[in-house]
UniProtKB/TrEMBL annotation:
This is NADPH-dependent 2,4-dienoyl-CoA reductase. Transmembrane segments: none annotated. Residues 380-642 form the FAD/NAD(P)-binding domain. It comes from the Bacteria. SUPFAM superfamilies: FAD/NAD(P)-binding domain (SSF51905), FMN-linked oxidoreductases (SSF51395), Nucleotide-binding domain (SSF51971).
Amino acid sequence: MTTTSSFPHLLEPLDLGFTSLANRSLMGSMHTGLEEEKGGFKKLAAFYEARAKGGVGLIVTGGISPNARGRLSPFGCQLSYFWQVGKHKQVTEAVHKYPTKICLQLLHAGRYSYHPFSLSSSKVKSPINPFTPSEMSVRQIKSTIKDFAHSASLAAKANYDGVEIMGSEGYLINQFSCVRVNKRTDEWGGSIENRMRLACEIVKAVRAKVGKEFIIIFRLSMLDLVEGGNSWQDVVTMANAIEAAGATIINTGIGWHEARVPTIVTSVPRAAFTWITERMKKEVSIPLVTTNRINTPEVAEQVLADGHADMVSMARPFLADENFIQKAIENKSEEINTCIGCNQACLDHVFKQKRASCLVNPQACYETELVIEKSTVSKKLAVVGAGPAGMAFSVYAAKKGHHVTLFDKSEALGGQFNVAKQIPGKEEFYETIRYFDVQLKKHNVTVEFNAEKSAESLIEAGFDEVILATGISPRKLNIPGFEHPKVKTYLQVLKDKVAVGDNVAIIGAGGIGFDVACYLAEGKSLTTDKDAWLKSWGVDKNYTENGALLAQPEHEKSQKEIYLLQRKTTKVGAGLGKTSGWVHRATLQKNGVNMMAGVTYKAIDDQGLHIEIDGKVQVLPVDDVIICAGQEPERSLYQSLLDADVTTHLIGGANVAAELDAKRAIRQAAELAMTI
């Protein structure tokens, strides 16, 4: 019996004339760091092969520079020489075992190049880069156009099905197309016709070099989201010219990397920017790809069914689950390991020159290293604690063939994820709990709730090994008045929903402190109200101003007086994620949260919280003091089990509780499962 697909638009083939794509999914460009590792292309081939096997229609690789000066970093990847073709063939041969097509992304970083030899349209430094670029001479511009065409021809020789020319996100071509950076007065600057000349000439040169039967995707910045960005008419003029120059597909680019509008983090509503692609569909006739925060087949299907685009680009969702499309084909979307948009193991790693992976899927980019193989001996394993570490270990161990029983003293899966999902903008954590719930049932893990285990009960049950994923306990602080009724733990506030007054002090400005501040300040989440969210961050859907920015964001400031305090003298929030920390700080700033560093806590009493900063003592007249100043590992069972000679492992917060770290917890769980 044939099953009717729940996702007919997503799974419909796309005819490009000279070739066709198996479905409407595009795995968006992601730099993994494997491109620069020794022997990395073999691992990269395995990474892309897994996604091709999983059914994605079209893959776009991480950005590869057409020349040395365009590299993202001093030793960044480029494709300029014939001897480089061989390693790329490893990738294309692996992908072409399946119906999937693959395009190489050609990216010249311009002033985003993290080295002193960077070039741009003008000598204008980026606010996110310490290096000031040199202004390109006309000769260098023409040489760069040739380099793009040459790299494309080498990509064709490496058997790529096409290239994507990166013209958005504030990279070189975008730097030419906008007056924000382009201050030139020659034929490469001034009017939009001149500013877009580089983009058009590159597309023409590439098409001339590779012939008609080769996919050329152009990534067009449809929303610059920066001052000095393009007007809507500029964008349309450029799109028409790109189509005329020979592009096969136009992909949607949203925001420059230096934009102060979040575009991909978890607090961005799903499919928040597809409206701009829909608007462009009225202007061009070639297929359009839409993108950003589309992370389930249901969302992708709706976007396509509503006519917002011809294809949907999803990058990180294919990190989270390589079988995303295959599961959609089989109507098993409940089994998809959903991307939660956290950036912690993907973008944050890449920006630190580390290999990318995925918080919810540590096997991503480790396909040849973190491998699940059936165990020769099936063990009876007890896992105590059903938080991220416990759930992940149970699933991986069960896949290996072990008999796993998962215990938790509460009545639900999730552990600290049940706390995190309460935070406005972090609702995606519901998806991870759903995924593990499905997987635990699928792999026959016995789950027992309301089961607070003693060492004796575990020993009597005769488990071969015990894995303690018991999490953490909030740390108590040595402050006079710590037992005062004003004092509450973050768990009381987030989990138990204890009432909090209008004047609040939060002690501890790590990730938990920021979460509590956001929870209290935001009040309600805007993730289900896209228009309100866009206005809150100053995005103008009417596109009346260049860059599509409102003159003033429309955000309702919190009515609470909140103080977020830390002992450290460093910038509050300095330890947050590299690519998402600024969003958390900006959210609190919009809500008028007082962020204070270098604080000494003197006492808590009926007056409030007594503190000292720079030698000055003051009292914060608060109703409540919420403690977010760290936690201790919960290991009460550990020593008793060791004393009884039971092989016992600590993972997650029970192992290290310095900061709640789901990325480390899930990876640690996977690595332990591989060895048992």
